[in-house]
Write a structure and sequence with these properties.
This protein is of the alpha+beta class and 930 residues long. The protein has five domains: 111 residues, 2-Layer Sandwich (Zincin-like), CATH 3.30.2010.30; 156 residues, no CATH class; 104 residues, TolB, C-terminal domain (Neuraminidase), CATH 2.120.10; 122 residues; 203 residues, no CATH class. Helix content is 17%, strand content 42%. The strands form nine sheets. The protein has a 17-stranded antiparallel β-sheet that branches. Helix 2 crosses helix 3. The radius of gyration is 30 Å and the shape is globular.
């Protein structure tokens, strides 16, 4: 029991304080650090200018936000500039110290983040709201930190719904007077307008948005909820609530009582008023829009995420992406209702695509590396040759064929700057253009006459359409408005088809660059995006309550005509900072943040043992070094139990666990017990060599277990110790996919081949052992899946035997696995130096609840059922052990703890089929990966 307690404490607290490591496979891995009054920023060499600008922005944001919160961290907040991923994001946490991760990738698509004065200012402001918000503490929580350090339970606002946390950040990132922030933009207005039309979520559903549409529902509902609170009760009341709640020692259970003190109502009552506020704000407009809809016909594809599409003649090419099945490149020869969709080739991580007249498809794919980098590269696909890789680690996201279709024009974001490149199939590459600071290139298209038209954000302005001038290496604006114009598509007559929000709703328009005349083609309730011109009409993506729906507008006719000059308007945002802070830099050192920032007192009492101790741990600002230490001293028996773990990136793991177990013989006499000591040591080097887009990896590991007698009574015989030390290597292949609407693995294979030897280091066992397994999941229609797995192993005579039986196993381990489950039989029903286990299983998705019990920290997510058949055997050489089989059924429930932590609970029943050894068992288990 004590051993399990040590493991649980170590895993839980390590998970709470661990950080995401920066990527590690770059040649320029020279990290630098600089400091201002309230921040320390860490950055790779070459990013000095951006780091200085970020520090300056952060100091401005600090000055503006601290008065609202009334307090700030008492030590500088650590910020990291990480240029490792090809998408826009960031994160912040107060644990184990105040830190912000900034992804150096400006947003380029219309998805909410586009409506900012400056992308880095918006990102820093949003994340620093999180830091100030979650750091708030007064009274007992503040005193608890001074005594025990930065433990999670002394941060009351950490234990509030993400709807409140993200909503506050979106509310405070918005500036209506200057015209930036998501609450000032059309995209959030569109999303909430559609939510109101479809039915507003209850509070129970809004506090645990896991997989439900729209993605990012916590941001959307939370932002408008905070706006409602501020409009109804005032910013001061909202600030007062935050201050009062920061005194609570039972944060989950004191949210409603604190709300009553400030607002006079519980959150349930506030949410009802909020729903009425939303209805009053959006319903009249929805009715007006519904009364005059002009939209296309739905294509027979289920709505979901925005699909990547391209048009050629009267063929629509697309990437199927419904979050239920793996994606394919597909062709729709007749994109009318009932048209035939022909799937061509599976595709993984498609970011963009275009098609040539001869059927060649160019696409960019987002590839996740084991190093932590997530980057896009360009491929060409043909029906005859399949995929041909055109670039390697070039980070190119948007792709279009050139006018002569002999080369590819692609864009990328690198070091925060936008670039255009031209690529030829023979390997030649040329950079065509690089942006200035604060200039962001969005979607673009190449016209038949060679012109390149794009959506572009100029410094201090919003998004406009522009034409690239190759001779000057610059852009000529085709529009200059306060609308967000996006998704340009060239037409054969030289006009440009695009999406824009001139009247507050994203609709489709056609611009004649020569005359400036604009024709409106749609009037929709939600929004119309990414138009594609076909011979018979226009296909576009319409935002709905269930996702983006592909629509076909046949023979589009103008609904209104105006001159683009009538929409003239500029933002003229003031610079995010008027003066840059002074900055000196030094080489990065992990030691300033790596020190322990908390300690947890521990106490354990049993019949023959009394233990006291502590737990601590930490990580550095880059997340490269993570450690956890748990130590318990048994005052009755004068021995120590401890757990020491250290992780470097995701490459090195070192762990040492010592535990003592007391065995009571229950003989009815005094002192009829003895104690054993077990030491477990693990050293693992993962991802030593990688291939096949990092899905094939080589790992090395050493595991050692030493069992000995720690204490015995004088009348008991001595027991010899036992030591097993295995050194090994493992080759793994993993191309499994997680699909948003499928419970568990959605599709793909995992396979490994593991070799371990007892003869490298001292061991009471001898010889070597080989093991291998293969698991594959098929994506069935809808949200169901079918999977099989086969595993087996062979060990020399002197090695430890494999064990089969029971519900508990070590199958998820890579090294040192020798215990395999067979429900319906007792533990160790068979054992030997050879084994095999096979299983087939059918998983059916049953329901999506996504409902919380008010503001209590308990909710339910997805529910699925599983039927399985499992067979296996373990035997020694020269034996003829019969195979044992069992069948079973499971109910899998995602239990949501504290609004965000998903704890999968499995309730199962198994029946062993052997007449003599089989039994009926009922089991409950949960498996969480850290």
């Amino acid at each position: 029991m004590l051993r399990a307690t040590l493991l649980c404490i170590s895993l839980i607290l390590t998970a709470l304080v661990q950080a995401e490591p920066v990527a590690w496979d770059r040649d320029d891995d020279d990290w630098r650090s600089s400091r201002s009054e309230h921040f320390v920023i860490h950055f790779r060499s070459g990013y000095q200018d951006m780091a200085r600008y970020a520090l300056s922005v952060a100091e401005r944001v600090h000055t503006e936000l601290v008065p609202f919160f009334g307090q700030a961290p008492d030590v500088p907040t650590q910020m990291v500039l990480a240029d490792d991923v090809d998408y826009s994001n960031g994160w912040a946490t107060p644990l184990p110290f105040s830190q912000i991760r900034l992804f150096v990738s400006p947003p380029e698509d219309v998805a909410g983040l586009e409506h900012m004065d400056d992308w880095l200012h918006g990102l820093i402001r949003h994340e620093y709201v999180h830091v100030l918000h979650m750091n708030m503490a007064q009274g007992v929580p503040q005193k608890g930190r001074s005594l025990f350090g930065r433990l999670p339970w002394f941060f009351p606002h950490v234990f509030t719904p993400p709807t409140f946390i993200e909503g506050l950040a979106v509310y405070l990132e918005t500036n209506h007077e200057q015209g930036y922030g998501r609450l000032d933009g059309t995209y959030y207005d569109m999303q909430m307008r559609v939510e109101v039309a479809n039915g507003i979520d209850s509070l129970d559903k809004a506090v645990i948005p896991l997989r439900d549409w729209p993605r990012g529902k916590a941001y959307l509902y939370g932002a408008y909820f905070m706006a409602y609170i501020a409009e109804t009760y005032g910013d001061e009341a909202l600030s007062r609530y935050l201050r009062l709640y920061s005194r609570q020692i039972l944060p989950f259970f004191m949210q409603n009582s604190t709300a009553r003190r400030v607002f006079g109502k519980s959150f349930a009552g506030l949410w009802q008023d909020y729903q009425q506020w939303l209805e009053a704000r959006f319903s009249a407009r929805n009715q007006a829009l519904m009364a005059d809809l002009r939209e296309g016909e739905s294509l027979p594809l289920v709505p979901g995420y925005r699909r990547k599409t391209a048009a050629m003649g009267d063929q629509l090419w697309l990437v199927t992406n419904n979050s239920e099945e793996r994606s394919f490149i597909a062709r729709w020869s007749d994109p009318q209702a009932g048209g035939e969709l022909q799937e061509q080739e599976p595709v993984r991580g498609a970011a963009d695509l275009d098609v040539a007249a001869d059927g060649r498809v160019v696409l960019s794919r987002q590839i996740a590396r084991v190093s932590g980098r997530v980057i896009d590269d360009v491929f060409i696909w043909t029906d005859e040759l399949g995929y041909e890789r055109l670039t390697d680690d070039m980070r190119l996201r948007k792709v279009r064929w050139s006018a002569d279709q002999q080369s590819v024009i692609a864009s990328r974001k690198d070091a925060g700057l936008s670039e255009l490149w031209q690529l030829w199939p023979d390997g030649r590459q040329q950079r065509l253009w690089q942006s200035e600071q604060h200039q962001v290139l969005g979607d673009f298209d190449v016209c038949a006459d060679g012109r390149l038209v794009a959506a572009i954000k100029m410094p201090g302005q919003g998004w406009n359409l522009a034409e690239y001038l190759p001779a000057a290496g610059s852009w000529r604006l085709l529009t200059d408005t306060r609308a967000t114009e996006n998704g340009p598509e060239c037409q054969t007559d030289g006009r440009v088809l695009f999406s824009a929000d001139y009247d507050g709703v994203y609709n489709l328009y056609v611009l004649d660059p020569g005359t400036g005349l604009v024709q409106q083609l749609t009037r929709v309730l939600g929004g119309a995006f990414e138009p594609r011109q076909l011979a018979s009409g226009v296909v576009y993506q319409s935002y709905t309550a269930d996702g983006f729906q592909l629509m076909k507008l046949n023979n589009p006719q103008p609904l209104a005509v105006f001159n683009i000059g009538e929409k003239q308007g500029r933002y003229d945002y003031q610079p995010a900072v008027s003066e840059l802070v002074s900055m000196s830099e030094s080489a990065y050192s992990p030691w300033s943040t790596l020190r322990p920032h908390y300690w947890v007192p521990l106490w354990s009492v049993s019949d023959h043992s009394t233990s006291v101790g502590l737990n601590t741990g930490g990580s550095d600002a880059l997340g490269r070094h993570m450690y956890d230490v748990t130590v318990l001293w048994d005052t009755d028996n004068s021995w120590a139990d401890f757990s020491l773990t250290y992780l470097y990136d995701n490459r090195w793991f070192l762990g040492w666990l010592r535990s003592h177990e007391i065995h009571d013989l229950d003989l009815g006499i005094e002192d009829d017990w003895y104690a054993t000591q077990e030491d477990t040591f693990l050293l693992q080097r993962t991802n030593l060599v990688s291939a096949l887009e990092d899905r094939l990896n080589l790992h090395l590991g050493i595991s050692a277990e030493h069992q000995s007698l720690a204490l015995r009574q004088d009348w008991m015989p001595a027991i010899a110790g036992l030591e097993e030390t295995l050194a090994g290597a493992a080759l793994t292949f993993d191309n499994r996919l997680l699909l948003r609407n499928v419970h568990g693995i959605g599709w793909g294979s995992y396979a490994d081949l593991v070799y371990e030897s007892n003869d490298v280091l001292n061991s009471d066992y001898s010889g070597k052992q080989w093991q291998s397994r293969w698991q594959h999941t098929f994506d069935l229609a809808g949200r169901d899946s079918f999977a099989f797995q086969i595993m087996g192993g062979i060990a020399d005579r002197g090695a430890e035997a494999f064990s089969l039986g029971g519900e508990v196993s070590e199958e998820t381990l890579l090294f040192g696995r020798d215990r395999f489950a067979l429900p319906g039989y007792v533990n160790g029903v068979q054992f030997g130096h050879k084994y095999y286990v096979g299983e087939v299983a059918y998983t059916a998705w049953l329901d999506r609840i996504e409902d919380n019990y008010g503001l209590l920290p308990l909710g339910i997510g997805d529910i699925s059922g599983r039927l399985w058949y499992r067979e296996g055997s373990a035997w020694f050489r020269q034996q003829h052990t019969p195979s044992l089989a069992s069948v079973g059924a499971e109910l899998n429930v995602d239990v949501v703890i504290a609004y965000r932590a998903v704890l999968p609970i499995t309730i199962g029943v198994a029946q062993g089929l052997d007449e003599d050894l089989g039994e009926n068992t009922v089991y409950v288990r949960s498996q969480v990966a850290f």
